[in-house]
Every structure is written in structure tokens, then in C-alpha cells.
Amino acid sequence: MVARDHAAPEALTGPFVYFLLSVRLLSFFFSTATMPSPRTYDVIVAGLGAMGSSAAYQLARRGQRVLGLDRFDPPHTMGSTHGHSRIIRTAYWDDPSYVPLVGRAHESWRELEAASGERLYYPTGQLYLGAHDSMLVSGARDSVRLNNIPHEEISGAALAQRAPGLRAPAETVAIWEPHAGVLLPELAVATFLKLAKQAGAAIHTEEPLIRWNAEGEGVTVTTPRAAYRADRLVLTLGAWMGKLVPGLGVPLAAERQVMHWFRPKPGTAGIGPDRIACFMWEYEPGHIWYAVPDMGDGFKAGIHHDGPKSDPDAVDRHISAHDVERVSTRVREMVPDADPSPVASAVCFYTDTPDGQFLIDTHPESQAVVVASPCSGHGFKFASVIGELLADLAMTGSTDADLSLFRLARHRAAAAVKS
Ligand SMILES: Cc1cc2nc3c(=O)[nH]c(=O)nc-3n(C[C@H](O)[C@H](O)[C@H](O)COP(=O)(O)OP(=O)(O)OC[C@H]3O[C@@H](n4cnc5c(N)ncnc54)[C@H](O)[C@@H]3O)c2cc1C
Q1: Which residues, judged by CB distance below 6 Å to any ligand atom, belong to the binding site of ligand 1?
Q2: Percentage helix, strand, coil for the chain under 3-state DSSP, each rounded to 5
Q3: Which atom of ligand 1 is nearest to the CA of 74?
């Protein structure tokens, strides 16, 4: 969208109009003589969740004059980056292109920990569970073999030993990935923003982008408080991308997701990392639930996808009995040491592309605008490296990483083949 302001037409007739015009011309002269020109930056980053906060940090540490804008005060609970934990795993059954990116993401998270002194990553390992030939297990198996990812394939007694807190049907097979773990999303966003500010970025919270206009060499961004000018604009608006950035030719859908937290039953050995690890479990063909073990605030679980498409400004944040039951049922059957009544629940968004692959590219109408929707329910682990890629794209228009899977043209071509 190259947004433009349109002035309302007026009927101009009669001598009174000449008087009005003179007054208007005078007031225009005085207002423009005193009005500050838009403040200028090298790059404006709109949306400071996982991806935008990381991009703002990377840009600021590379010496760019950065303005970061967010409509809320991140980290917050209105978008996609809350709920205390996110899994980082390498066995990408979706597409092998993600595997080298996870490797760089791990390094980059470690660099962020070193730069900030914060601990953001906790190793737990991850299990991919299901029937031997299920989509999840066979995909994880292919991925670990193809990419030489350390793993074990286990079932029966070996599975019961690895994850004594799980009750799996006899035919269940698991791929165990020992080097997977958990990242802390809210602390990560707060850390990116803190370091971005230390490196000189201006971070404006509670200040939404309401309009942008790519003209000439740069971009003008308007908020309720001011107009800003920059050479480049990075749009990382999460669930709001589909509403605020039309013209991409790829539909981006905000999908309502619910996370629940469960406590161990009294007198049991608990549901911590030594008892259940992180897991993704294809409990019925094509249906996956996931969990993060209890690391102090309960065991977190949810259904991967299967949520309704929602308007991010009007989503139902009330937790229904149905929301609870579809996860409690799995907990009751498969995690017997957990109390199946959740102690807390929260609504969050996936922002889905049609085929679940990230979208990262420049806007079709302006090379000065970088657009990023690295979500579809699996983006957080990459936030550290995506900040680097977005900084590369904003500063030079290209990056060394292979982004072909994420380009708009690839998405459009895939949609055309499907229809
Ligand atoms: C329940 C759940 C579980 C998940 N589990 C995992 C996992 O285990 N592993 C994993 O890798 N990924 C996981 N994901 C996906 C991951 O969390 C997301 O891919 C990631 O958080 C998306 O980050 P984002 O920056 O795109 O969106 P957000 O973090 O939501 O950031 C978007 C920002 O844009 C701001 N904004 C919106 N409109 C405007 C405006 N007009 N002006 C300025 N700012 C605006 C918002 O306020 C927000 O701060 C999960 C997601 C969910 C919901």
C-alpha cells in the first residue's frame, strides 16, 4: 500500500471565498514557517515484537539511526510473543531451508545472552511423537537423517525411560532431539529493546503507525503524534500485517491460539524437563499438540493450528469450555501426573501464510519497505537471526542467506499452482 492523503473538494464561489482564501493562505504561510519538518531516521521499524525488536537492535548496533514504533508497550500480551516459553528445535520436517537458519539462530541467541548478561535459553531436548509413519514422525526422521542432526528413534520401554511422565499408546514412536530447548520470549523482546536503546535507537511505545507513504528516495510514516521520514521502513506488525499491509498479493491470516498451564498432581514425581521434555505429538493424523515442561510456572500445552481465523482487533480473548476441553482431554490421556484443569490460559496469534512458510521480502511497490511475517506458528526461535536478515535487507537490499522460500514471488507462484 502506498497510502496517500486525499483533500476533500470544496465549492469555491463568490467574494466571501476570496476573503476565506486570503485567510487560508496567510495561515498556511505562518503554519509552514513554524511547523517542524518530519524527524528523519535511517530506518523506521514498525512493530516491536519478536522480529521488530530484534531488527531494531541489529540496525542500531550497526550504527543506523533507528526509530522503533509499537502500538502497545512490548513485551505485551496482545500479539504473538507472550506465554513465557517458545521451543527451539532443529528437526524441521517442513522444509530443509530452515535447518541452517536454526543453526545461526542458536549462535545469535548466545551472542545476545553474552551482550546482555541475560539467560534466554534452557536446553530440554524435544520429542516428536506419533505413529511410525505419521507426518510428524516421518518428517522429523527425514530431517534428522538428511541434516545429520543428533537424535535417537525410540519406542516402548526406551520411550518410557526417556519420558516417564508420558503415557503413550503402545504403537507410539518418538524421535528424540537432545539439542532442542526453550527460549524466554518476553525477556528476549525486553533485552532486544534495551540493547537497541543503549545503541542509540529511539523506541516509541503506545504510538501506532497509522499511515506510510513511500515516495521518492524514502518513506514517510505518520502516527497520531507526528510524521517521521526515513530512508527505509521495516514492517513487522505480526497479526496486524494482513490488515495494515495490503497489496502483497499473499493473504496473511491471524489465527487464534490458546495456551494453557497445568500443575502436577500432588504426590506425583512432577512434569518437569526430566519427566516429559518438550514435545510435539501427532495424536490423530494431521493433528498435533505440543507442550513445554514445567520449569516453575506449570506445564504449558496447546493444539498446533486448528484455531479460527480472527481479526486481531476483535479476537475473542475469553477462554471457553471448548478451548480447555480439547487440551485437557490430551493431558488426561497422555500426561497422567498433570492435573487436567488448567491453572491459567491465554490467547495468542499465529499469523499464517497459505503454506506455512515465512514471508520476508521488500514490498512490491517500494524497495524502501521491507515486510516480514516470519510466523505461521513457528517463527520465534528465528527472531535472533531474522533481526540480522531484516537489517541486511534494510541497509543493502540483499542478504547472504537464501531467502527464496520466503519471497513474495514464491508465495504467489505456490498459490497459483494450488488454485
Ligand atoms: C501460542 C503460540 C505458541 C508458539 N510457539 C512457538 C514455539 O514454540 N517456537 C517458535 O519458534 N515459535 C512459536 N510461536 C510463533 C512465534 O511466537 C511467532 O512467530 C513470533 O512471536 C511472531 O513475532 P512477530 O514479531 O511477528 O509478532 P509480534 O511479536 O506480535 O509483534 C508484532 C508487533 O506489532 C505491533 N503492532 C501492531 N500494529 C501496529 C501498528 N499499527 N503500529 C506499530 N506497531 C504495531 C504489535 O503491538 C506487536 O508488538 C508460537 C506462537 C504462539 C501464538
Answers
A1: 46-52, 69-72, 74, 78-81, 83, 86-87, 208-209, 236-238, 240, 244, 257, 259, 302, 348-350, 375, 377-381
A2: 35, 25, 40
A3: 49
Residue at 256: amino acid letter? R
Cell of 220: 514517510
Nearest to 67 by CA among 228, 238, 217: 228
Radius of gyration of the chain (CA): 24
Ligand 1 centroid distance, CA of 106 (Å)? 19
Separation CA 341–CA 344 (nearest Å): 9
> b/e map of 286-318 (b: 16 or more CB within 10 Å)?
ebbbbbbbbbeebbbbbbbeebeebebeebeee
pLDDT in tens, 295-322: 999 999 999 999 999 999 999 999 999 9
**Average pLDDT taken over every residue of the chain:** 91
The pLDDT tens digits for 91-108 are 987 788 899 999 999 999
What is the reported pLDDT for 17?
A: 37
Residue 162: per-residue pLDDT: 96
Question: Per the structure block, which three cell numbers stand in for 8?
Answer: 476533500
C-alpha cell at 410: 514464491
Residue nearest to atom 50 of ligand 1 (CA): 377
Residues 399, 389: contact at Cβ < 8 Å? yes
Q: What's the whole-model pTM score? A: 0.92
> How many angstroms does the Cα of residue 19 sit away from the middle of ligand 1?
54
From residue 211, give the alpha-carbon distance in Å to each of 214, 361, 365: 10, 20, 15
126-178+253-352 CATH fold = D-Amino Acid Oxidase; Chain A, domain 2 (3.30.9)
Q: How far is the CA of 292 from the centre of ligand 1 (A)?
A: 18
Report the alpha-carbon distance of residue 85 to residue 106 in Å, rounded: 16
Name the CATH topology of 39-78+186-248+356-418: FAD/NAD(P)-binding domain (3.50.50)
